[in-house]
Amino acid sequence: MELVIGALYFLVFLVLLRVAKINRATGLRPWIVPASFALKCGVGLLFLQLYIFQHTDYHLKNDAGAFYREATILNNVASESPADYVMLMTGIGSSDALSQKYLGETNHWDSGSQAIFSDNRNIIRVHALIHLISFDSIVVHMLIFSLISLLGTLLLFLAIRAYTDLKPWIVLALLLLFPNVLFWSSGILKETFVVFGIGAFAYGLVVANSRYKKMVFLSMGAIALVLFKPYILIFALVPFFIFWIYVKIPKYKLAISLGIPLIVGALILLCFPGILYKGTHLLSRKQFDFANVGRGGMHVQTDSCFYYFPPEQYQFLRLEGDSVWLNSELDACKVMHGDLIPPTPIHLFPNSKAWTLYFDQTPANSFVELTPINDDPSRLLSTAPSALASALFRPIPSDPGGKLKYLAFFETLGLFSLIIWTLFRHRMLSVNERGFVLSAIVFCILLGLLIGWTTPVLGAIHRYRLPIQLALIVCICVAWKPNIQFLKHE
For residue 359, what are the β-bridge partners? Predict the structure, then answer.
């Protein structure tokens, strides 16, 4: 039944894309956009097979399943109290007590005080809305997510097609078929809205020819990024400032456009040193939390805090359902989940009252140790080169991980081979185009540093660098001067 409902939705979306205005606006053959959607749906089914269907208890095995499951729990609130449901869905009037009352059994809803914007809650809310029309078919969720990300890809295509010498179908193919982008944007995770946000924002900046349309698309892009990956929009502000300086300054464009932001940034840190230390602490905590997930281990909940036990300490624990008991004295780590309080060592004694199992994770196959930041700003500087290299190039064949690391390696090799080829076969760029390429490179560096500093799982690194790959692909499309007639745009 689930596949039947999914097939009906698929046919409806296929017809809508065939007659949609955006299909005509691309200037491509009428069947290319529907075929692109069909391809994304095929990859989406593969995503569901790998991350959902193959697991017996699939709802609890990963973020994708957990978000979907917690959305069903959220929707159940509507039958108990419509008013509370509206508050939880909108966030207006909601409170921690209200969340605990209805969603205490969830793991992803509460991000704690670390989260500036709770993107986990927002993806759960999106799934909850889709649940209203999906008839409990997770395939329908995948179809809607794939449609949204395809629209983002088409908007990005429309934004850059006038700034490339490549044939339009080549540009769309580069944006659509890059394996990492195609796979993750066809699933049911936040990457869908990253692609849509980038595409809508680019369309609003470059293509929209009226103030109203410009504001609509810029707002849609900004909202999508703020709700689901706010740091991407934040990191785009500095490159946008660099671009603006580059196109306005008549001479010494490179030195001045890079120098002014560096000087402004240094002055801000000198005047407000607390920003540096608070940011360093936030990165330290993110790194610590992600390392714990990568190493595997168990988090148990007490009345006031959480305790973390690595896998090698499981022999000292007794698990009865969701209740955890300590059999002997043990050194562990005390964690205030979601808070910015640093984890502290603690010596524990056997408990008389059961602790509640909160999170249990097997070690990641592609886990690598990172140099701990430990609230030290100088560590950010000293580890920056290795962090950036990891974010851009790993995994490599000698790294830990399964067979998929080879696919990721050859994908990265192919991307940077195209970049090198473009350096030798680039066309003359306008001032605006050179400014864009420079700002895109700065964006890739900033996002790469964040990923490399905080992410010790190579599989996650490859997923998180999707925006970097999109930025580099756009740069290739803009700068590449094809010497083969088959590739040239007439």
Answer: 299
Q: Work out the number of other CB atoms within 10 angstroms of the CB of residue 317.
A: 17
The total number of residues written for the chain in this structure: 490
Residue 298 dihedral angles phi and psi, to the nearest 5°: -125, 130
Exposure letters 110-135 (e unless 16+ CB within 10 A, then b) = beeeeeebbbbbbbbbbbbebbeebe
**Structure pTM?**
0.89
Domains of the chain by residue range: 2-213, 229-279+369-479, 297-361
DSSP-derived letter for residue 53 is I
Cβ contact 142:186 at 8 Å? yes
Q: What are phi and psi of 391, to 5 degrees?
A: -65, -30
Q: From CA 276, how far away is CA 282, in angstroms rounded?
A: 10
What is the C-alpha radius of gyration for the chain, rounded to an integer number of angstroms?
24
Tokens, residue 367: 């886990």
Given a contact cutoff of 8 angstroms between Cβ atoms, the answer to whether 293 and 364 are in contact is: yes
Contact 293, 459 (CB under 8 A): no
CB 141 within 8 A of CB 149: no
Strand ranges, E, within 367-484: none
**How many angstroms separate the CA atoms of 208 and 205, rounded?**
7
| Cβ neighbours of residue 73 closer than 8 Å, sequence gap 6 or more | 102, 103, 105, 106
Q: What is the mean pLDDT of each run of 10 residues along the chain (490 residues)?
A: 85 94 90 96 92 54 79 88 88 80 76 59 93 91 96 96 90 94 94 95 89 93 92 90 91 92 91 88 85 83 85 89 88 74 83 85 86 89 95 93 91 95 90 93 96 93 95 94 66
Q: How would you class 162 by CB atoms within 10 Å of its CB: exposed for 0-12, middle for 13-18, buried for 19 or more?
A: exposed
Residue 304 neighbours by CB under 8 Å, 6+ apart: none
Of the candidates 170, 219, 228, 173, the one whose C-alpha atom is nearest the C-alpha of residue 195 is: 228
> In the block, which residue shows the tokens 């339009």?
168
Which has the closest alpha carbon to 284: 358, 362, 369, 371? 371
Tokens representing residue 34 in the block = 């529907």
**Where are the strands (E) in 39-108, listed by range?**
none
CB 99 within 8 A of CB 109: yes
